[in-house]
């Protein structure tokens, strides 16, 4: 059975089931196919829970997320993998917010051209946001999706939280791991 997710004429690749749950498979390794695999995970598995990683304001208002390991993920992913992901995201956001010569030049050009320059040029900040989106996509494909998890880009949540969705295979949605991971502190 093949399923069309978008207007793309090629059908989505199939999924494989492993001991860890749903594992998306990439037929040709291109970004469009991998994107469809993550979409297929969202559609073929039931959402069991969501975990939110809050912003860390201990060092001011710079964009930094807490690295505290949520208990809901203990049976799903190793602590070091999770912490590496959050630390890498924090480093990317620090890079994006760093002010240097390029930022000043962009600001001066923006003022001189009544901000029309941004119609034909990406800012340094936008370029780093694209790197972050690519990194999250890669982490979802290689690390999180095989474990039944998906990270949502913080930009989609107003840079307030990192949202991690926990999925269960529809066939095992009644298992104890799906019902025991629900908590009052996380919401859909």
Describe the protein:
- The protein has 188 residues and is of the alpha+beta class.
- It has helices at 31-44, 79-97, 101-112, 124-144, 176-180, and strands at 15-18, 21-24, 45-54, 149-152, 161-169.
- It is elongated.
- Residues 1-33 and 173-188 have low confidence and may be disordered.
Question: What secondary-structure arrangement, pairings included, does this model have?
Answer:
Blueprint: E1 15-18, E2 21-24, H1 31-44, E3 45-54, H2 79-97, H3 101-112, H4 124-144, E4 149-152, E5 161-169, H5 176-180
Antiparallel strand pairs: 1-2, 3-5, 4-5
Helix pairs in contact: 2-4
User: Using DSSP, what is the number of strands?
Assistant: 5
What's the number of helices? Answer: 5
Summarize model confidence as the mean pLDDT. Answer: 77
The percent range for strand residues is: 15-25%
- H-E order: EEHEHHHEEH
**Class by SSE composition:** alpha+beta
- How much helical structure, as a percent, in the residues? 25-40%
Give the low-confidence spans.
1-33, 173-188
Considering the chains and any ligands shown, give keywords for the structure.
disordered C terminus; disordered N terminus; 188 residues; elongated; alpha+beta
Task: Describe the structure concisely for a colleague.
The chain is an alpha+beta fold and 188 residues long. 38% of the residues lie in helices and 16% in strands. The chain has a three-stranded antiparallel sheet.
